Amino acid sequence: MNSPWHISILTLFPEMFPGPLGHSLSGKALENGIWSFKAVNIRDFAQGVHKSVDDTPYGGGAGMVMRPDVIEKATLSIENPGRKIYLSPRGKPLTQKLVQELSEEPALTLLCGRYEGVDQRVLESQDYEEISIGDYVLSGGEPAAMILMDACIRLLPGVLGNEDTVSEESFSSGLLEYPHFTRPAQWTSADGHIREVPEILTSGDHSKIRDWREGQAESVTKARRPDLWNIRENARLSGKKPKK
Ligand code: ADE
Questions:
Q1: Residues with Cβ within 6 A of ligand 1?
Q2: Which of ligand 1's atoms lies nearest the C-alpha of 141?
Q3: What is the pTM of this model?
Q4: Which position among 18, 20, 69, 241 has the lowest Cβ density within 10 Å, counted as fewest Cβ atoms?
Q5: How far, in Å, is the centroid of ligand 1 from the Cα of 122?
C-alpha cells in the first residue's frame, strides 16, 4: 500500500485534532490509512519555568506574537515536514487548484498561530508559505488547518470512489455547481407552495439534461460570482479552453 498523506500540525491545542476530521469521509480515510497526522504541541519546545511561547510585539501594538526560537525548535522536531504552511489571513487564498496541488504532496506541515501572529523571521528562515482560507479573521489557525486538510483529504485516491463527482463539482470547471433535486418529484413546502422538480430532469434525455445543467451552472456563477465568471470569460476570449 502507498504511504499515507502525512500531515504534521504545530499547535498549542493538539487535542483539537483530528476533531471533525475523525468523522465521516475523512474519519474513514484516516482509519483506512489513506492519511495520517501528528499534532505537535508547540509548548513542548518552550523554555524556562514559564514555558512562554509568546511575547509583546516590538514597536508596540495589541496582542502577543509567537516567539521565533520556539517555533523554530518545534519545526525542526518534525522528521519529514514536506511543504511548510503557516495558516494566516495574510496568506495567498486557498483555492481548489491549490488544494489539488497540496493533496498531491506526500507530506505537509501546518503551523497554527494564536495571538497576533508569528515572528516574521522564523516564517522566512523556515520557508513557511502563508495560506489564508478567506477574507475574515479566525481566533486561531486550527480551524483553518482543518479546512485545508478536509478539502485535500476528499481528493486523495480511494476517498470518494467516484471520479465524476470531483470533475463536475463547484470550481473544478471554474463554475459553481448546478442545483440538485431528489424525490419527491412534487413537494409541498411548509408555506403551502407546490414545488416541482424541473421537468427536464425527469425526461430521461441525458444530452438535454447536460445542457440544462451547464446553463444553470453558468447563470448561477454569473449572478453570484462575477469574479469567477470574468476569469472564465477572459480565458475563453483569449482562446484558452475551460477545464471540462
Ligand atoms: N488564522 C486566522 N484567520 C485565518 C484565515 N482567514 N485563514 C487562515 N488562517 C487564519
A1: 87-89, 132-134, 136-138, 141, 144
A2: 1
A3: 0.94
A4: 241
A5: 18
Q: Going by CA atoms, what residue is nearest to atom 6 of ligand 1?
A: 89
- Which pLDDT does position 75 carry in this prediction? 99
Q: What is the pLDDT of residues 16-25, one digit of tens each?
A: 999 999 999 9
131 Cα to the center of ligand 1, angstroms: 8
Give the Cα separation of 20 and 196 in Å (integer): 35
For 115-152, give one letter per residue: b (16+ CB within 10 A) or e: bebbbeebbeebebeebbbeeeebebbbbbbbbbbebb
Question: Region 135-144: what's the mean pLDDT?
Answer: 97
Q: 196: which 3 cell numbers?
A: 416541482
What's the CA-to-centroid distance between 158 and ligand 1, angstroms?
29
78-93, pLDDT tens digit by residue? 999 999 999 999 999 9
Statement: residue 163 has pLDDT above 60: no
**Chosen CATH of 173-240 out of 1.10.3720.10, 3.40.50.150, 3.50.50.60, 1.10.1270.20:** 1.10.1270.20
The Cβ of residue 23 has, within 10 Å, a number of other Cβ atoms equal to: 11
**106 Cα–ligand 1 center, Å:** 23
